[in-house]
Amino acid sequence: MSAATPGDPVIGATPADPVSQATAADPVIDADRLTRRFNGFTAVDEVSFTIGRKEIFGFLGPNGAGKTTTINMLCTLLKPTSGKATLNGYDVVTQQDEVRQSIGIVFQDPTLDDQLTARENLQFHAMLYNVPPGEREERAERVLGMVGLTERARDKVMTFSGGMKRRLEIARGLMHYPHVLFLDEPTLGLDPQTRTAIWQHVHELRAEYEITVFLTTHYMEEAENCDRIAIIDNGKIVALDTPGELKHGVGGDIITLRSADSAATVKELQDKFSLEGTVKPASADTSGPAGDRIYLEVPSGRTLLPQILKNIETEIFSVTVREPTLDDVFLGLTGKQIREESVDKSDLMKTHIRRRRSMRGTR
Amino acid sequence: MKRFRAVYIIWLRDLKRHFRDRARIVGSLGSPIIFIFILGQGIGSTIGQNLTAFGANIDYKEFMFPGILGMTVLFAGVFASVSIVWDREFGFLKEMLVAPVPSWSIALGKVISGATIASFQGCLMLLLAPLVGVSVTPLMLAQLIPTLFLVSFSMTGMGVLVASRLKSMQGFQMIMNFIMMPMFFISGAMFPLANAPQWMDTLSKIDPLTYGVDALRGIMLPDIPSRYPFTTDILMILAISVTMLAIAISAFSRQT
């Protein structure tokens, strides 16, 4: 829970959250004001967070936000300009070999030797990471089975598809039983089917190997698979919480109504519930029945909806309630790609943050 | 000893790759063969035999053969170690750099694997010796193989040094034209340096291949007077190899 420092708009997890309690007790990664500058440009700016064992932790942000730079510092490829970090209890600057032995990494771009076979790639990795010779075969079989590549073990990697290569890299990253597996954009450029398969592997391996997974992504829907997410933008963490809490922080649900008389319905909503409805004419490309749609942003769609339906006299044809997505959260927090709703959301987020901070007693 | 494990692993991988790639093994013998049997034949027929500059009554092809051996080792060695650049482009270098092994062991592994591959290619060239008219005795072979390895070692050291500065394979053409070709021609591989102008003579003294070719020629063609005594050659190659290796390792460790 040391993620929040005064002045940073960081949302901590609620104290009741079991994952963050484990984090406080036994963090596997502890980053403290990690900073990296390149010729005056600050790629990562005083980033602090702790990650608990067996946690799936996501770094969500646009390209160039500092995700890969942070990973490179945590896996000792890059020295931090300032700040410090420990991984599995080892300092990433002074105990490089111990850190490296504790981690498995799947980079954005493939790092396989495509002239060698899948099994040879695993063997080579096992040798580099001090896996005892007697265990190499068995471990290779196990990880290959896990990612469904047993049949292709003797084929050269150059014959593999992009998805197979990524799976093989994940398998390779597990060969030395690391404590933390880093996945930098693990599903980038893969088809939806392979993406789903890779996520399945990630969840399986957490269950089977008791491993911590640290991943970066810029796919919002993927981040939902994480236990906790840090949203990073311009090198700073702007929010850190469970996906549910983050979405909750947006402040509500979105209700869409279609009625016989839009203007009358909006007026009724205004009079009876003090709700500001926005009317949008149905566009030609929208599927479903024609007619205007009324959008409402409400704190809790599920409880409010029955009351609305009971009290509105205009005939209502259809209703949908949508929970906010991480997309909404991200846009609200960073103000990027400003859409109609985002201004309100960022305000909501700020008040939400203020409210939470005053509740927790800001340090 | 644990530290040297990575050296062995990298050596093993490179050798696996090399021996799996038949086309490369045969292909890299292409230009030496062309040099001997076309250029060597052509020049040989033009200048005839009994050239005083050679210091002995021999065929030009014979004179040239140790030089071409040096060339084989130079090209194969530099090419093998410059594979670091390929590894960087195809990402595999990262797999090695992030492993719990010191970066000097990666550089050393590359130098040794490159030297092994280059001396293997050199040994393949030795099979052609009878066709050129050079007789290789077992005693010669016992001297030639370690010498070839030593010369290869200095060449691959240079290759790793170049590779740690080279960000993409596109720059390799430059290295080829401005380092490797001059090194080859100035070394005395193709012609005796006895009558060379002063500038060429000076340059040849800092060219590691000069000592390599001189040593190889000294072993294979004892009738031709050597430029330097054999021990001087070997000591010079050793000194250059160690220096190259030290610079290459420090350059490689500073990169990334």
Q: How do the helices and strands line up, and which of them pair or pack?
A:
The complex is a heterodimer of chains A (363) and B (256).
Chain A: H1 18-25, E1 27-38, E2 41-52, E3 56-60, H2 67-74, E4 82-87, E5 90-91, H3 96-102, E6 103-106, H4 118-128, H5 133-146, H6 162-174, E7 180-184, H7 192-209, E8 212-217, H8 220-223, E9 228-233, E10 236-241, H9 243-250, E11 253-259, H10 262-273, E12 278-280, E13 293-298, H11 301-311, E14 316-322, H12 326-334, H13 342-360
Parallel strand pairs in A: 3-8, 3-9, 6-7, 7-8
Antiparallel strand pairs in A: 1-2, 1-4, 4-5, 9-10, 11-13, 11-14, 12-13
Helix pairs in contact in A: 4-5, 4-6, 5-6, 9-12, 12-13
Chain B: H1 2-20, H2 22-27, H3 30-47, H4 60-81, H5 83-89, H6 92-97, H7 103-126, H8 129-132, H9 138-165, H10 172-186, H11 198-205, H12 208-220, H13 230-254
Helix pairs in contact in B: 1-7, 3-4, 4-7, 4-9, 4-12, 7-9, 7-13, 9-12, 9-13, 12-13
Quick structural summary:
The complex is a heterodimer of chains A (363) and B (256). Chain A has 363 residues and is α/β, with parallel strands linked by helices.
Describe this entry's structure for a reader.
The complex is a heterodimer of chains A (363) and B (256). In chain A, 39% of the residues lie in helices and 24% in strands. By secondary structure, chain A is an alpha/beta fold. Chain A has 2 domains: 18-248, P-loop containing nucleotide triphosphate hydrolases (Rossmann fold, 3-Layer(aba) Sandwich); 253-322, Alpha-Beta Plaits (2-Layer Sandwich). In chain A, the strands form 3 sheets. In chain A, strands 6-7-8-3-9-10 form a 6-stranded mixed beta sheet, sandwiched between helices. Chain A has a 4-stranded antiparallel beta sheet with strand order 2-1-4-5. In chain A, strand 4 (82-87) and strand 5 form a beta hairpin. The longest helix of chain A has 19 residues, at 342-360. In chain B, helix 4 crosses helix 9 and helix 9 runs parallel beside helix 13 (230-254). The radius of gyration of chain B is 18 Å and the shape is globular. Chain B has one domain (2-254). Chain B has 256 residues and is mostly helical. Chain B has helices spanning 2-20, 22-27, 30-47, 60-81, 83-89, 92-97, 103-126, 129-132, 138-165, 172-186, 198-205, 208-220, 230-254. Chain B is 76% helix and 0% strand. Chain A binds chain B through residues 75-77, 96-98, 100-101, 105, 107, 109-116, 120, 124-125, 127-130, and chain B through 2, 5-6, 9, 13, 16-17, 20-21, 90-101, 256.
